[in-house]
Specification:
By secondary structure, the chain is α+β, with helices and mostly antiparallel strands. Helices cover 29% and strands 31% of the residues. The protein has ten helices and 33 strands. A five-stranded antiparallel sheet has the order 1-2-3-4-5, covered by helices on one side. Helix 3 packs antiparallel against helix 7, helix 4 packs antiparallel against helix 5 and helix 5 packs antiparallel against helix 6. About 12% of the residues have low confidence.
Length: 626
């Protein structure tokens, strides 16, 4: 009885939510009577034989049997399921006989026109019934005579009554209630998982805070030792006042750090101690107007979260995750060769959700830029799959040449039906850049799925690690393992310029918000924003080796992602948190909420302040920030 009351409350909640006030009043009125407290077989019989059949409401008649089969009887219960199917066929025959008795041959024709395929699939003995509309007097035909008798119709109604009474009266209704209870339990479990994830994030944040305090104590200890070694540092500083030092515009000493002014902002490097006692550099931002140092990366505040969803559908480390063109769907891949398409919002249709098995580690994902229909998948064995999310099937399975078996990146043109693949040859090596050999940059047509051209890179060019189109698809920028950045004119298929950007391999490259600059990330952990008006000029830079240490590049290539406003730059991390740098202005950066392992892939929503982070802990998180 408790389950019955729970089901009644669910129905009330639905009616109130949808605003069906008249239905709600009738529902409560019937519940208040004693007759509404039991399973009403007679009312169901009246509904079928006094409403649906006489008024020729075929859709509703089929719907109620579909409801019975889905909600009350499991296909695994073969005996009962077979009984309800046979009963449905008899009721449908009664529908045809009733129409013929009433002289409504048109309804008979509509019946076979609407349900013909369904009937032939279910029961072969319906074949003879298709001829009934063309028989002059079917009630006299020996094959159909029994169905026009009163005895048959009375037996059918009695069988229907007995079936409903014996099957559903206290025997099958709990199955429906059990389903509702299980759904409620699943909802509670999801809430518990969210709470546990939040608790885990809090504990990880507390751990990092304590580690930062220990690191600060170590730095203070190093400062004390340094002061003991240089007792007259103030005198040394005063002796430099008023002297011009070549190559330095302005220099000041602030709390033991050295700051160089480069116009609108200044960068400073301080030495801090890492967990294993080694020294590393950490960038600081200072305001040139008041000379105040804001924060170091270790002190970046945590992002303020509007909501967060965690996807746990992978069984190995995440290799890539990307928002679709609309931002409604997400594709994520793992090193075991599995790709999952999913949604983070329960209100978004899940019709595109799918699992794709590629048979090899997935190294690149790229959605079609004009819709959420096509997803390109690149694998470490040189395979490129085109997945149609609407049809839920692979529409094309390509392969790069044998000389370049590793796909490092894929990008779809925002305008033309083409995409570019960056593939590389293989060579022995322990680190990822050591294993990549020469490059091949191929343009493919998405209608014929054939190569259009191979972009020129010279003889034996170093591997291309990342590519990016501008807004109209006319220019392509590419980064290479020799530290070079290349730019191509896609109309002519020629390289138009290039410059050495890093002293180490470049792992990720993308256009700035106004496409007047290019961002690049090197394996030394340095990020540069390059001017396209003055080639080689650095507009902005950060040292994120705290998060992207050279050692972390041994496992995977780090990447950067810029939000839709072009103000926040998100970077993958060898730690459990990733930095979000403020590109414009002097504001400090932010840190993401913690995963339980390194962050291997990042992306921003195309229009909203929302990002995704894939991690080596097998999870993908969608985070909306305030």
């Amino acid at each position: 009885m408790e389950n019955m009351q729970y089901a009644e409350e669910l129905v009330k909640e639905f009616l109130v939510f949808r605003g069906f006030t008249n239905t709600l009043q009738a529902y409560e009125s019937e519940l208040s009577t004693e007759i509404g407290r039991n399973f009403q077989v007679d009312k169901i019989l009246d509904l079928v034989f006094s409403v649906y059949i006489p008024k020729y409401q075929l859709d509703r008649l089929l719907g109620i049997f579909t409801f019975f089969k889905q909600c009350f009887i499991s296909p695994a219960d073969a005996e009962l399921f077979s009984a309800i199917v046979k009963l449905e066929q008899s009721v449908l025959r009664y529908y045809v006989v009733n129409a013929l008795k009433s002289g409504r041959q048109d309804k008979v024709g509509e019946f076979f026109g609407a349900s013909g395929n369904y009937l032939l699939q279910k029961r072969e003995d319906w074949l003879a019934w298709f001829a009934m509309p063309y028989i002059t007097n079917p009630s006299l035909d020996p094959q159909f005579r029994v169905y026009f008798s009163k005895e048959w119709s009375d037996t059918l109604i009695l069988s229907f009554r007995n079936f409903l009474s014996g099957t559903f009266n206290g025997l099958r209704i709990p199955a429906l209630l059990k389903i509702s209870t299980e759904k409620n339990t699943i909802k509670c479990l999801k809430n518990d998982i969210k709470q546990l994830n939040n608790k885990l994030s809090e504990l990880q944040a507390l751990l990092e805070t304590k580690e930062a305090e220990i690191s600060q104590l170590r730095r203070n200890g190093n400062d004390i030792v340094g002061n003991m070694n240089v007792p007259n540092s103030s005198a040394a500083d005063s002796s430099l006042e008023g002297q011009d030092i070549p190559g330095v515009c302005e220099e000041s000493s602030i709390s033991g750090s050295t700051t160089q002014d480069f116009g609108s902002q200044s960068l400073s490097s301080v030495k801090s101690s890492t967990r294993d006692g080694k020294l590393h550099e950490s960038s600081q931002i200072s305001n040139a107007e008041n000379g105040q140092i804001v924060v170091t990366e270790d002190d970046f505040p945590e992002v303020k979260v509007d909501f967060q969803e965690t996807f746990l559908g992978h069984n190995s480390s995440i290799s890539c995750c990307r928002f679709s063109a609309s931002g409604s769907n997400i594709a994520s891949s793992s090193i075991d060769g599995t790709v999952r398409i999913w949604t983070y919002d329960s209100s978004t249709p899940s019709s595109k959700n799918a699992t794709i098995y590629c048979g090899s580690e997935v190294s690149a994902l790229s959605w079609e830029c004009r819709s959420d229909r096509l997803l390109l998948i690149g694998t470490a064995n040189g395979g490129i799959k085109a997945w149609n999310a609407d049809a839920k099937r692979v529409v094309c399975d390509l392969s790069t040449s044998r000389d370049f078996p590793s796909v490092l990146d894929l990008k779809c043109s925002p305008v033309e039906p083409v995409f570019v693949s960056a593939a590389a040859s293989r060579r022995p090596g322990s680190a990822i850049f050591d294993r990549t050999g020469f490059a091949s940059l191929t343009v493919w047509h998405m209608k014929t799925w054939k190569p259009v051209t191979v972009l020129p890179l010279g003889e034996d060019p170093p591997a291309i690690t990342s590519v990016c189109f501008n807004h109209n698809g006319k220019i392509l920028v590419a980064s290479a393992t020799d530290g070079m950045i290349h730019m191509f004119d896609m109309s002519a298929g020629l390289q138009i310029t290039g410059w050495p950007a890093h002293d180490s391999p470049v792992s990720s490259v993308l256009f700035g918000p106004a496409e007047t600059s290019i961002f690049s990330l090197g394996s030394d952990g340095k990020i540069f924003e390059w001017s396209l008006h003055n080639q080689g000029q650095i507009l902005w830079s950060r040292d994120c080796s705290r998060f992207c240490s050279p050692e972390s590049f041994d496992k995977h290539m780090h990447e950067i992602a810029l939000d839709s406003d072009g103000k926040r730059l998100l970077v993958t991390s060898g730690l459990v948190r990733a930095p979000i740098y403020q590109v414009q202005g002097h504001e400090s950066g932010l840190r993401t909420l913690a995963h339980s392992a390194s962050i291997t892939s990042v992306d921003w929503h195309p229009t909203l302040p929302m990002y995704i982070t894939g991690s080596a802990d097998n999870s993908v998180r969608v985070t909306s920030i305030l």
